């Protein structure tokens, strides 16, 4: 087992030589929030938090860490759900949120160059003001773009536009030994050897530290309409998805939601959802340049939905109307969280045609395991978020039932040719399930890559594929 | 029971600016939508209809494009619609608008309940409802936060007053204006939209009005005149205070007094 | 009737020409530009149309005799005789306006068993308080109140009437204005008066994005509503100056189609979405018990305590109290953040508050970028001292 140096006063002094003391948190200056992410149950405090402001600083810091064998955990806004940004080996936590500048909007190449600490919501705002769209749209808008790239975050618009990986043109990174390197660039095509940039994307800070990103933009669609489609049952709702996709109508989002979760959100937000006639809903979103154009897309989808048993299609064509739905959708995670004592999540992804199998399995599992599982997600891309709730269980019962339930959910996903995580990542919490779902050989390959990038294993130890 | 809802088409956004030199309004974008407050009135009407039976009609005053809000109301469940439109009604203030609307309502039919939203997002006056009621000589109740019951040609409602909730019974015909959030407005239905997209609506112009005195309409019939419009002075204050707790708390106290949060 | 005439031959480019209208009220039809019913008669097309649009003015209406309408009247807003403070603010304003034109100030007081309260109005500068009492006027009934108001106007003939923009004033004033076919300007923020007794009224429009100056040049009475806390409260005078008059109305004027069935005291508003004042607890609050201090401050300001996400997560406050992107969006008149650093997700839920006062001991806290008043201090010292000052009602230095 690798042992890491714990930091002492000398390290503080040494690091203060190249990083302003004002931006170093040490000992009891370290807030509680740095000890966990959004969902972790246990706390792990780093010895030091460094709030970096430049690539050069990070380079120096990594050089120092590699010389002294100190573990470094990079962290954005700390909104992850799988413990990827938790400093298990203490050491240095590298907070990139102060690196939040927009460096260049290149309208000739349709790219935006940003620092990693720019928040997703700031990014969306910025590009929209200039008439562009950055398509990846994960639910957590206060996450950083660096974090998004590190988990290859997905979001609701993946149905039409794909995921974060599809919008990263280039990266500037700092390697474990402090080397600064540029991968990819503004080029549209690239067949120049192994794609190291794509390896960094989704590596959760285990291979290198992202210090700059060149993102690809699209022109901003002028209008959007959301359709809320009530169905008598969830099964009918989800079974309508494959025919919608097959129709080539290309909605930007296809979400599913159940009455129960909607009611949690109503309670949480203190406002009513605009419809209550059904137990299950599909939520579709269409983009276009005029209302007429959009209407021509959804006409076809409307016919399909009605054939598949939809009760009606409700049209959210104004900001207020769309907000009444999407505000609820955006609050699901927090709403579920506030409805129970503790919870854990499963973020599996299965082929889209099999989503209904998985959802029906979850329902069955609830009664089998005698535990509440709430579920919502991206019906259009096969990515499901299921939350297992502790409620009044004792810690002991909870551990037992949770593990058993998780095992069952992941093995079901495997049997449907699905994967462990659609967009939240593996981090610390899902390592075991990754192990079980990919071949031994694949794990060996991943560990080999890790060794090449970070021979001393100081970058975010114990995450993803490491022991 | 016949229910009428007054609805208005308003600009899609309130982002207007005033040209400082000419004092003229500059509008961004040309989108329009149903006045958000009217959605609550329409929802209230539909709920009353669903519970007690009857019909829901909608009426609007505006340019020919304002038909769109009537069709939107059909897609939400309204049964009939009428549009009052004529160049002669242009430039109307609250009084002239109320007069035109009340004349149009008389032409449209007799209603037991007339519902209005609390106010519009472009005018913000919250006055047209009660003025229409006065001109129709019927009772009006504003600020309704709950519909309690419909009973023998009366309706019982809760009116939100500064310190109390007053439960009142009002006889038909009457005019009610409802608060925002009385009900969460439903979304337009695709099925209803398909069924009603070719529906006829009544169009009323000046010649349909009972009162044929031209001077009572539009700009001529408006007692108020807008003398000028100008941008508001920016009140974005940014001050940084420091000092002893004694000094700072004194400053905050003074500020709260000045801004009337404490007396 | 006033109208606009389009001279087609003077239009060079009709597409550009149509763009002049901010209300989309010009259309091209059969190769002619026409003005549609969307026209608001703003006459911008006349100003900018280089002669292509001509304004034909109305034939001159006979002017009313403004000298027959004298005095500034204030409607007394009250609940069971308990006078709403907006009334005093309006009396103060009325006093100021009346002084400019050397005319009297009147107050109109309608209700049941209220006369004993009328004296107080004389301490705020009313020259005459017209009191109308009747058991039928115990509750606010729109028809009866309108009739009494009309009787007052016919008898007294005031030049201008100010009404508080309260739930009562906002429904009573328009009915009265409609009955007299006169102008009513809602929610005025500035009022002034000209020598010829024309009231100069300024009010926000389009959600406060523009201000409009409005006059009522040829009808009387002129009417305006004003919200509470817009005008300054005047000093109470030690001596009462004016007189109390009685206004009698016929029984038939008190008939109403409205029955008040019950009156229930409103429960205190406890949702943070609706509160006018919010005091927000942030991570700077060290113990759960310390929230009491913020509760006390909120109580004194008639507001509610809200929270940031971390305090909700550790269970100190209910999730319904959470402000922010993942919580509730609030828009209070005043928000005081206590020990809140100001994460982006928090700020997104409150940055539309009218006034933001942030107390934090970290002078670099991000909340200070959003705050109108960035107050660098220790919450544990500032808040208790502020509470003491409010309780003591100290005079401001």
From TrEMBL, chain A:
Keyword Magnesium: no
Gene3D superfamilies: 3.30.465.10, 3.30.70.2190, 3.30.70.2740, Uridine Diphospho-n-acetylenolpyruvylglucosamine Reductase, domain 2 (3.30.43.10), Vanillyl-alcohol Oxidase, Chain A, domain 4 (1.10.45.10)
EC number: 1.1.3.15
Stored InterPro entries: FAD-bd_oxidored_4_C, FAD-bd_PCMH, FAD-bd_PCMH-like_sf, FAD-bd_PCMH_sub1, FAD-bd_PCMH_sub2, FAD-linked_Oxase-like_C, FAD-linked_OxidoTrans_Type4, Oxid_FAD_bind_N
A Pfam family reported for this protein in Swiss-Prot or TrEMBL: FAD-oxidase_C
Keywords per UniProt: FAD, Flavoprotein, Oxidoreductase
Signal peptide location: none
Domain FAD-binding PCMH-type: 42-220
Protein name: Glycolate oxidase
Needed cofactors: FAD
Gene Ontology terms for molecular function: (S)-2-hydroxy-acid oxidase activity; FAD binding
From TrEMBL, chain B:
All copies of domain Electron transfer flavoprotein alpha/beta-subunit N-terminal, residue ranges: 22-213
Segments passing through the bilayer: none
Full protein name: Electron transfer flavoprotein small subunit
A GO term, aspect molecular function: electron transfer activity
CDD domains recorded: ETF_beta (cd01714)
Organism: Pectinatus brassicae
SUPFAM superfamilies assigned: Adenine nucleotide alpha hydrolases-like
InterPro entries attached to this UniProt entry: ETF_a/b_N, ETF_b, ETF_beta_N, Rossmann-like_a/b/a_fold
TrEMBL record, chain C:
Record key words, sorted: FAD, Flavoprotein
Residues that hold FAD according to the record: 283, 308-309, 322-326, 360
UniProt-listed SMART domains: ETF
One Pfam short name: ETF
Co-factor binding details: Binds 1 FAD per dimer.
GO terms for biological process, alphabetical: fatty acid beta-oxidation using acyl-CoA dehydrogenase
Cofactor requirements of the protein: FAD
MF terms in GO: electron transfer activity; flavin adenine dinucleotide binding
UniProt cross-references to InterPro entries, sorted A to Z: DHS-like_NAD/FAD-binding_dom, ETF_a/b_N, ETF_a/FixB, ETF_alpha_N, ETF_asu_C, Rossmann-like_a/b/a_fold
Domain Electron transfer flavoprotein alpha/beta-subunit N-terminal span(s) in chain numbering: 72-258
Domain of life: Bacteria
Family: Belongs to the ETF alpha-subunit/FixB family.
PANTHER family associated with the record: ELECTRON TRANSFER FLAVOPROTEIN ALPHA (PTHR43153), ELECTRON TRANSFER FLAVOPROTEIN SUBUNIT ALPHA, MITOCHONDRIAL (PTHR43153:SF1)
Stated name of the protein: Electron transfer flavoprotein alpha subunit
Source organism: Pectinatus brassicae
